[in-house]
Amino acid sequence: MDKDCSMYIEHVESGKRKVTLSLTVNDRLVVRDVDPQMTLLHFLRDELKLFGTKEACGEGECGACTVIMNGKAVTSCIILAIEAEGAQITTVEGLAKDGKLSILQEEFVSQDALQCGFCTPGFLMSTRALLDSNADPSDEEIIETLSGNLCRCTGYIPILNAVKRTIERERKELGR
Ligand code: FES
Ligand code: FES
Description:
Bound molecules: FE2/S2 (inorganic) cluster
Number of strands: 6
Largest sheet: 6 strands, mixed
Radius of gyration: 17 Å
CATH architecture of the largest domain: Roll
């Protein structure tokens, strides 16, 4: 085990080295033995069956795999699962509460800000991270955030409108 992984317990199962990973995903503590080469994206999808986080480019370019890690939007396809040891992760499945969509999700629907929807979880998580750190971003700041996510079929104006309406509603309804 190298120095950086010294906090992990090492296992040998079927000849494959595994390390024990402990983190919080959508407010739930998760502990799993994982291949140290597994990405956070594949950990979420393959181990936890959280299929909302999507894989497209696999190279950190398109934003489809975006999740929030310790308050920041990250592309989970280029992060190893073991780099998330002890982290707080939120995926798109963590946005709705008690079966009710979040305001941000509702506004993506109301503004027709999606077509095929493949990119949508990434947009939701990028914008959620922005609004959590800045409840009243300028249009330029929103556009800068959206520029990290690629959409091939909706166009960005409805997405921008959905974020702006979310800001208004969160101010009125949540006092942000
Ligand atoms: S799949 Fe991760 S950035 Fe494209
Ligand atoms: S809605 Fe289809 S790629 Fe964005």
